Amino acid sequence: MECFPLINTVMALMSLDNTIATSAKWLNECNARFDGATIDASDRSKVSAGLLHLSLEHHGAIQLLISNKPHPHYGSACALLRPQFEGFIRGIWFHHCASEQELNNFINNCEPPRIGQLILAIETVPGYEGGLLKATKQKVWKIMCSYTHGGYIQVASRHTATEIVCNYSEEQISELVSAACSITLLVAVAFAKLLDSETMANEILSEYRKLFSQS
Fold first, then answer.
1. How far, in Å, are 145, 191, 213 from residue 177 at the CA level?
2. pTM to 2 decimals?
């Protein structure tokens, strides 16, 4: 079963240990550039950057949970993919699309619109018009929600024919890590653009290609 259909084809060919190690290198490259980054003082920039940074942190938490040998917390790691994706979507929406009233409402602890509405707005922004985000959401959202909210995929991964036991397959976890890495690429490029650094965006893409090149 393809549990997270955001698969990097190179990672799909790696062993689970190599997948986890490559994910760690990729995450370190991103964190090295964005931790402590200086942004302008506007509420819009602070909200957007905070959400993108949160998305990166969720990837870091996934990494920690699956690396906790000999007792990895695979179910909790899987539950974080939806918040990672949602942090990216909200960060982009607040940067490019939210009105001043919507921004102020969020600062005053009101929820933004539902994710489908956010994606529709984002896909009017140059660079996001291709429909990829909408297609991705349609393909993976129910799966992400099932993992986050204790749906049947989580239950089915917690038993064998005779025992209640953590029973996630290596394929499931490799798919999780691949999806997290793919989301982090989107986050990192968006973060570089928020910082108005085309140089950083190009560096990020170069690092991604070096780590995930098929050559």
1. 17, 20, 16
2. 0.90
